[in-house]
Amino acid sequence: MATGLTKTALTRQLAEKLELTNKQVAGFLDLLAETAIKETKKNGVFVIPGIGRLVKAERKARIGRNPQTGAPDFRSWPQFNEDLGLSRTFPFKERFRLEFRGESFNVFNRVWFGPISGATSLGNPNWGKWQSQVNTPRVMQLTARMTW
């Protein structure tokens, strides 16, 4: 099973290649992450040309329903997931291109619970407990595509 780089390993690798100190590279990575989050919250998207983009997608508030009557019960809060996609294309000769792409949906793995349902009497041990998750957990996929 392949493992990703830790922040420390990435910092060391970049520091060696760029001939900078680990502290300088760590400061840059922290600033990049902080800027990406701030810009995504402000503008809804953060783009690094040639590398990828971080996009904020908002969803409308949902209406909860009473499981016995079907009547509207309460409104839930708006939901959003941050998705991230990175790609790199390598040209070969004149006709061939190899594209590597990595995508992550719900990057920060936020959990949005569904309406409280099921047990409607106080004596039931499941009364007042969240029974379902509305969104999907973090999903990551890697692809490679050769075009000619």
Describe this structure in words.
The protein is an alpha+beta fold and 148 residues long. It is 23% helix and 35% strand. The protein has helices at residues 7-18, 22-43, and strands at residues 45-48, 52-59, 63-65, 72-75, 79-92, 96-105, 139-147. The chain has a 5-stranded antiparallel beta sheet, with helices on one face. Strands 3-4 form a two-stranded antiparallel ribbon. The radius of gyration is 22 Å and the shape is elongated. The mean pLDDT is 80.
Descriptive tags:
148 residues; alpha+beta; 5-stranded antiparallel beta sheet; two-stranded antiparallel sheet; 2 helices; 35% strand
Topology:
Layout: H1 7-18, H2 22-43, E1 45-48, E2 52-59, E3 63-65, E4 72-75, E5 79-92, E6 96-105, E7 139-147
Antiparallel strand pairs: 1-2, 2-5, 3-4, 5-6, 6-7
Radius of gyration: 22 Å
Number of domains: 2
What is the straight-line distance between the termini? 31 Å
Strand order of the largest sheet: 1-2-5-6-7
Percent of residues in beta strands = 35-45%
Query: What class would the helix/strand composition place it in?
Result: alpha+beta
Instruction: Report the order of strands and helices.
Output: HHEEEEEEE
Helical content class = 10-25%
How would you state the average pLDDT, rounded?
A: 80
Annotation field: number of helices: 2
| Major sheet | 5 strands, antiparallel
General form: elongated
The count of DSSP E runs of length 2 or more, i.e. the number of strands, is: 7
Question: Which stretches are poorly predicted, pLDDT < 50 over at least 5 residues?
Answer: none
